[in-house]
Specification:
The strands form three sheets. The chain has a five-stranded antiparallel beta sheet with strand order 2-1-5-4-3, with helices on both faces. A five-stranded mixed beta sheet has the order 7-9-10-12-11, covered by helices on one side. The protein has a two-stranded antiparallel ribbon with strand order 6-8. Helix content is about 45%, strand content about 20%. It folds into two domains: about 5-155, 2-Layer Sandwich (Beta-Lactamase), CATH 3.30.450.20; about 250-385, 2-Layer Sandwich (Heat Shock Protein 90), CATH 3.30.565. By secondary structure, it is of the alpha+beta class. This is Blue-light-activated histidine kinase. Its EC number is 2.7.13.3.
Amino acid sequence: MHGRGDDRFRLTEARAAATGVTDGCSMTHESAYPPAVAPATFALAFDASPTPMIVTDARAQDNPILWVNSAFLALTGYTREELIGRNCRLLQGPETDQQEVARMRAAIAVGEPVALEVLNYRKDGTPFWNGMTISPIRDAVGRIAYFFAAQADMTDKRRAESAMRGTNDELERQVGERTADLEHALAQKTALLHEVDHRVKNNLQVISSLMLLKARRTPEGEAREALQNMAERIGALSTAHRMLYSDGDVAHFNLSDFTSDFLSDLEAGLDPERTRIEARVEPIAVAAAMAAPLSLMIHELTTNAVRHAFPDGRSGRLTLDGHREGDTLVLVIADDGVGLAAAPSNPAGFGRTLVDMVVRQLRGSIVWAEGVPGTRVEIRVPLQAVA
């Protein structure tokens, strides 16, 4: 135990330590403070500082508090007499984070600075968040003599953060509920569109079947051929709606999938030794609203080529290419048949007129040209018209 004189000496020394000026202890070089200013002036300045500060005695058992300023007393509610000689753990309580306390003790044990925020308790039991920075003070030979801690009440900051988290949680909850409502509404809309496509497909199949039945009972000639052609066109529309229903995406139409599906049906009625069909179509997704005109266009061009490009048992090849060039969808249907000029005349034909009409509807362009040999049709459609 120290006598009163020793206590006064050590208290004065502690104040000086807080300022960085002692007889044998210094945190900084002597030139770090103006020589004309007395150390006592620095001690008074630290005493009057609004920042809570303490100095503990690293050389005494249990590292007791040696000096506190008035701001620290105001923060904690203790008197100076109640604090001097006690360890700072008296500020800890049931909710103090022991992991942070362990981190602080580890830093003190090895003499390293440490910054942390912990929940402390005032004398009356009121909790507050204490943000502190602890630094060791070494003597002239480099041994740790004191620890200096500057502190701040972080309670308001923590409350603001908690309120912000609560606000964010509430916003996330509301967004989650709204998202769930929208997903539910979208699911219902999608189911409805699926049902509509399904019913349209079934109705188109029924209409196609009725027209084919009527065609079989109609004498051979233009009327019978017209009924068969219309039935096939309706079948192409039914195929497009079937794909929209089965793919699960009622908003888009995959041109490659439709082409593959449609051509497989077309090839089923052909002699593979006489007529070959080759397709290279990229998987371009177009708007579902454009499924009908595009399917009609592809159907018309391919079936007309099969029917008219290879007369009198002539063998040949039909190619279909679909790709994207920037913002343009490009379709090229070509055959090595007899060509446009040599094809049999068909005054009642409607196919070319229908294709031209569909291209205009899609705000595109079409070029009919003689191939070498055969016929080549190139169609360009702005993708924004089908996207």
